[in-house]
Amino acid sequence: MKHSIRHVKKAARHSWQGLRAAYKTERAFRIELFLTIFALPLAFVIGKTPLEKALLVASWIFILVMELVNTAIETIVNRISQEHHPVSGKAKDIGSAVVFVAAIQAVLFWGILTLSRCGWF
Known about the structure:
Layout: H1 2-25, H2 27-46, H3 50-80, H4 86-117
């Protein structure tokens, strides 16, 4: 038990360091985190049922998660080489696409629920 608690503390410290690194170096992550201040309370206004609220919150957090994945991919590619290579560019483009698809999914969730509140669905 003592070792597992120590492991959890160490993992939490590394996770916190990763979040801080992403915040310091990634403008997109800072913007998305700032927008979270507005998005999360709004999710509780738009969502009427607990499931709707959970979907709205989860779709927004999914964008943050995918931004972190994209940052990790870019960091690894940059660590390997700073020179341009088609495979490196492809990896970075796919990482960017991950964030884009997450954002589209969130827009769909938010849009459908918002429009349904307006009686358009």
